[in-house]
Amino acid sequence: MTITLVASSLLVGGFAFLIADKITTILLDSARSDVRQRVTSGASYAAKQVSFYGQPQEAQLQETIDGTVNYLAGGDPQQTSGVVVAITADDYPNDIQTRTSPSANVQSLISPELRAAIADGKVASQIRTGRLTGESTKYLVYGSPVPTRFGQIELYYLVPLGRQDVTAADARATVVATGVALVILLGLLAALVTRLVVNPVRVAARTAQRLSAGLLDQRMVVNGEDDLALLAASFNQMATNLQRQILRLEEMSRLQRRFTSDVSHELRTPLTTVRMAADLIFAERDEFDPAVARSAELLQAELDRFEELLTDLLEISRFDAGFAMLDSEPTDLVPVVHRVVDRLAGLAERVGVPIELDLPGTPVIAEVDPRRVERVLRNLVGNAVEHGEARPVLITLGIDETAVAITVRDHGVGLKVGEEKLVFNRFWRADPSRARQTGGTGLGLSISLEDARLHGGWLEAWGAPGQGAQFRLTLPARAGDRLTTSPLRLVPADATLPFGGPRDGGPLAIGPGAGGALAIGPAPAGDGQRTEVRS
After folding, report:
1. Are the CB atoms for 49 and 87 separated by under 8 Å?
2. Is 272's pLDDT higher than 50?
3. Which of 160-169, 314-323, 361-370 has the largest mean confidence?
4. Are the CB atoms for 393 and 345 separated by under 8 Å?
5. By the 8 A CB rule, do 392 and 354 touch?
6. Are 399 and 486 in contact (CB under 8 A)?
7. Which domains are seen in the chain, by residue range?
8. Which of 167, 214, 231, 373 fits a 20 to 30 Å CA distance from 10?
9. Which of 378, 390, 398 is closest to 337 using CA atoms?
10. pLDDT in tens, 232-248
11. How far apart are CA 333 and CA 488, in angstroms?
12. What pTM was estimated for this model as a whole?
């Protein structure tokens, strides 16, 4: 509507200016034509009257000029309109006096340029503003030379343009009023059309917002058979199709979750029976030949993995169904870390990966579910040991006023670009051909991510090829608080920066330098925390 108003105002204003200028020009041209005709006839008459005089000093010449001026002024049918007739003799100012009818001082209205043009024998005109009869008035001053036997005198007509000005002002006012009315009408029409077009679009936008919020039964009202009605009908059809598809997908997802849960539960009974038989065979494996004994060991290991998989599937199904509950209690995380390390010490020793602990010397208390936190750490440390490439795995615990964080750092093959987002996908493996030491189910990190979210925390990963990987678990110190920062960095201090890191093998520290600037350099040797090394 604003664009319509601006464009129409400019267009109507331009037309109004052109029309007003044209009307003014027509009125002025009409006045010029009338006055020119009168000047031409008046000059002929005055030339005849003074043609009998051969010298400007003759006594009767001034009387003849007076009579001619009075006659020419009296010949005007609109004598009361203010027309002034004047005869001057600029070449003979001492012999011939200027005569006007009616009597007025016209010298101020006859410019030197106009006098010069008349002296050259031309008929010329000017528009001048001055006072002759009282108030200031605009005059059309027309002059013509009058030839005589002794030289030349000048005849002037001074015609007031007041009537033309009034007519032009009335015309301009009419044009402006018409233009303003037209602009207002165009604005109202634009507002009406805009409302007719925009309102359905706004309704569609609001309906789309409600649909995106989960209100799948929202529809638009269809009125008429125009394009907007077609848009509303198409929108409603799209919403119906989306609702049908979403409901179908939700039903399929529900059935899939139920199927997974039911299958997991139903497998418990035969698995228990198989477990009892396998335990019996495994216990008597020393009495079998080596091939059968090896088969008993493999059966026992796969049954262990099968039980873990069933447990993970049941846990995932609870997360998917929204039935997972958090049992928070004030917990010291230092013993939790020690329990995880003690449980995985045998695996770390078998693969030759030392586990280093960087823990505070004081208890780290947080309101968490210790069972879930221990499970997360067990998955993270187990993965780090699995991919440690016989290099140390560092576990760091940090705390601040609002959050606690645990990082697990390995120095194995690392992660490629983009894989830090894929590691939490179910059954995803960075290298499917890689032989596993722990026989994991492929659901550990997915369950860990859900455990972190259930606490209202973060589980993040960083990795680079050849530099290993680091996982960071950040949990709120008080249950229900919202996290904003983490006490520990996600990118380890010894990671090589894209522009090149330290070449002497020392760790890299990034922190505030002098004057608040960012300082990059070797990390300090100690930070007041206790460090343990287990292998």
Report:
1. no
2. yes
3. 361-370
4. no
5. yes
6. no
7. 1-217 (3.30.450.20), 225-314 (1.10.287), 324-495 (3.30.565.10)
8. 167
9. 378
10. 888 888 888 888 888 88
11. 15
12. 0.44
